[in-house]
Structures are given as structure tokens and as C-alpha cells.
Amino acid sequence: MHREQIKAMALANGFKLKQQPDGSEDLNPYVYEFADALVEPLQAELERLQHLLLEKFKEWQIDSGEWDEVEWLERVQVTLFGKEQPEEQAKEVQS
After folding, report:
1. Structural domain of residue 89, as residue ranges?
2. Percentages helix, strand, coil for the chain, rounded to the nearest 5?
């Protein structure tokens, strides 16, 4: 998650901005650290499941002689998340 996403979600759920040592108003650093700690294992599990699904579909598609990994990744993304995956994440999944 991006810092601005965390900030928006935290503010929407009752967190308050606090004055930081540099004089700016922001969430305390531990809020961002906590959000990262929550997301990290979920992201790892998502990547594990995507890899597992990719391998299973490769088996099925290779057996049928029709395999287009890029097209398949796009279809899976739309199916699972209802939208296309940001390009940098799609490249990570392919590697």
C-alpha cells in the first residue's frame, strides 16, 4: 500500500493527524508501520496463491496446446479483483 492510501484509510477510520517533529501534520510513523505489518503477510499469501494458480493453469493450457501467459494474467486479475493490475505488479507476478 502507498503511504497516501494508508493515510486516507486511517483518517476515514478515526485516526487523527499529529504534529510531527518537522512541524508537518501527519499520522505518527507507527501507524504506517502497523499498516505495512498487516498488509505484508496478506500480500505474500496473495502472491503464493497467484503462483499456484498460474502453475495449475499452465498445466491445463500446455496440455491443450494453448498458452498465452500475459493474456492469462490479465484475465485472472480482472476475475479476482475486477480491474487490471498495475503494470509494475503484473511484471512482478510474471517473474
Report:
1. 3-94
2. 70, 5, 25
Q: Is the pTM of this model over 0.70?
A: no
- Tell which residue, 29, 46, 44, has the closest CA to residue 10: 29
Can you tell me the mean pLDDT for 57-78? 72
Domain count, the chain: 1
Residue 19: phi and psi, rounded to 5, are -70, 130
Q: Which three cell numbers stand for residue 46?
A: 496473495
Q: Look up residue 24 and give its amino acid.
A: S
H or E segment at 25?
A: strand 25-26
All 3 cell numbers of residue 48? 503464493
Q: Provide the mean pLDDT of the chain.
A: 82
